[in-house]
Design a protein that fits this description.
The complex is a heterodimer. By secondary structure, chain A is mainly α. Chain A has a single domain, classed as MetI-like fold, CATH 1.10.3720. Chain A is about 75% helix and about 0% strand. Chain A is built from 15 helices and two strands. Chain A has a two-stranded antiparallel ribbon with strand order 1-2. In chain A, a hairpin with a 5-residue loop joins β1 and β2. In chain A, α3 packs across α15, α4 packs antiparallel against α12 and α12 runs antiparallel to α15. By secondary structure, chain B is mainly alpha-helical. Chain B is built from eleven helices and no strands. In chain B, α2 packs across α11, α3 crosses α6 and α3 crosses α10. In chain B, about 45% of the residues are buried. The chains are: A mainly alpha, B mainly alpha.
Amino acid sequence: MIRNLRDIYFRSDQAKAYTLLSPALILVIIAMAAPMIVMIITSFNTQISMIEIDRTFTTGRYEDFFSKPIFSMLLFRSVKISFFVTLLTLITTYPLAYYIAFYVKKNKMLWIVLMTLPFWTSYLLRVFSWRVILGNKGVVNSALMGTGMIDEPLGFLLYNQGAVIITLSHAWAAFAILPLYVSLDKIDKSLLEASYDLGNSKFETFWRVTFPLSLPGVIGAILIIFIPTVGDYVTPQLVGGTDGRMLSNMIQSLFGRANNFPLGAASAIIMLTTVCIIAAVVTYITKKVSMRMS
Amino acid sequence: MYKKNNTLFIYCIFYFAFLYIPVLLLPIFSFNDSFHMVFPLKGFTFDWYVQMWNKSRLHQALFNSIKVGVIASVVSTFIAIFAAKAFTRYKVKFHSLSYGAILLPFIIPEIIIAVALIVIWTSLGLKLGLIPVTISHILFCTPFCMLILISRMEGFDKSLEEASMDLGENSFWTFWRVTFPLLLPGIIASLLLAFVISFDEFILAFFLSSSDQTLPIYMWSQLRFPKKFPHILALGAIIIIVTSLIVMTAYWLRNLGQGKKKDFTIGI
C-alpha cells in the first residue's frame, strides 16, 4: 500500500510540482487568505468598546459606509487620483520606453537600470522630498522668488490632489517603464518594415502596428499601478493635505484613534472590491480594443 | 531600428531629471547648515551625521530593520526557489491559478494585507510587533523572489540537468551540484532585492509593528519635527547610497553568465 503510494508519487509530476509549490501556497493561505476571511467576518461585527467587538452578524458597517457621504467621497477620490496617476505615468513613460526599445542600440541595460534605480531608494524619503520641492519654502518657490519671477510663494503647489498625483506618478514610474519596454522590445522589427513598405507613414505605423502590439505592456502597467495606488497611505498623508486625503487615511484612523475595527475592515473590503471590478473592466476593454485594432 | 530622434532624446533627459532630482535633493541638504530645506544653501556641515550617530532609538530601529530584512529575505528566497522550480520544470495543473495566488500579495494594496493581518492578529489575542511584520514581509517579498528566480531558471540550459540525471545522479544531487551553482547568482540577487524591499517597506510595518519601530517607522516619527529631521536627511543619504549599491550588485549578478539576454525585466 505505502509502496504503491510512493510509486504513484514518484511517477506523478503533478504531485512533485505541488510539493514544491506547497510552501508558497501555504504562506499565501496562512498569511493572506485566512486573515482576509477573518477580516470579512469582522466587517459584519460591531465595535462596542475600546477592546470589545460584538460578534453577532450585522450588515450595519456597510450601511454606515454608504450612509455617511465622507466614505463614498473618499473612495471616489481615491479611485479618481489613481486613475490620473495611472494615466499620467503611462503618458510620460511611454515615449521613454519607446526610445529605449527602438533608438538605443548600445547599453540598453544601463538605460533600464538608471531608469529603475530611484524606485529602489526609500519610498518614504522620495515622497517626503516632494514636500520639500513643492512647499511654501520649498525648492520651486524659493527658486522662483530668488530669480524674482514671483514675490509671494505659490501656495497651490502642495497639499492638494495635484501634488498627490505628481508624487505618486514619480514613485511608480518604474512599474510602467518595465512592462512597456518589455512589450515594445518584443515587437518583431520586420512588421514595422512591412508597414513602411506598404506605404504607411511613421505615425500610421505607430498607431496601427506598434501601439496595438504594445497593449499587453500597457495592461500590465495599468494593473500594477492602478491597483496598489488606490490604497496608498504615505503620499496623501505627506503631500495631500485635507484636499488630498484618501480612503486609506480614513482606514488607518479607524484602526488607530477612531478604533472601529469592523468599519475599518468593511472599508478595506469595499475598496478592494471596487478596485478589482475596475481593473477587470479596464483589462477587458483594452483586450477588446487591441483585438479590433490588430 | 530607427536612426535618431533628438526630440525624444531631449524628452528622455528631462524625464531623467524629473526622476532623479527628488532623490538627490536629500543628500545635498544633509550637508546643509540649516534646519530648513531652502535654497540657497547656507554652509557645509557634518553635524547631522554626528547627531545621527548619537541617537540610540535610531540604532534600535536600524537593528530591528536588519533583523526583519534578513529573516524575510532568506525565508522568501527559500520558498521562492521551490516555487520557481515547480513552474519552470513541470507542467503544473491550474498553473495560472496557483501562479496568480502567489503573485497576489505583490499586486493588491498593501494596506489591505496590513488591515487583514492586524484583524486576525488581534482576534487571536496576540501582541503586535516584529513577528507579524516579518510574516507580512515574507508574504510581500516571495512573489518578487519567485519572478527573479523563474527568469534565472529559464535562462540556463535545461539539458545540463537532464545530462546529470542521465549520468545517474538523483534529483537531489542534480539540484545541489548542477542547478544550484547555476542558480546561485539569481539566489543572491533575490536575497539582496528582498532585503532592500523589506528594509524600505513602510505600510505593513506601520500597521503591525506597534512599539517595535523599524527604520522607516522611526523616520516617519521624526518627520513632524523640523528640528529633528536634518539627521533624517543624513540617514536618508546613507540609505540611498547603500541601497543603490546593493541594487546595482543584484542587477549585475542577475545577468551574470546569461550572455546578452534581452528581456531584462527585474522580475516584472
